[in-house]
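Continuing the batch. This is chain 6 of the set; chains 1 through 5 are on the previous pages. Same settings as before, nothing changed between runs. Recording input and output for traceability.
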Amino acid sequence: MEKNGKPNSEDRKLQCSDVSKCFQLLESILDGEMGEEGKEILKEKLDKCQPCFEHFHLEQAIREVLKTKCTKQPVPNQLADSIRQMIQESK
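Output for chain 6:
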């Protein structure tokens, strides 16, 4: 069921058909590489796919913590990748 015109988690698919492609897209959007078009793609993707929704929010949280708590500089991609891998391995 939708609340306030937004799908809830029960309305999202639980399996993503192309996880690696979607995660690359979401990371490009988070990196600001896709502009306004990317924001619309992101909204549609997150509304439909639970794994992408979860990945986006996890990635966003990791980047925010690293950016604000560890340094005042952008997070190096290699560091974010390493942390992401450790989190995935712990699941």
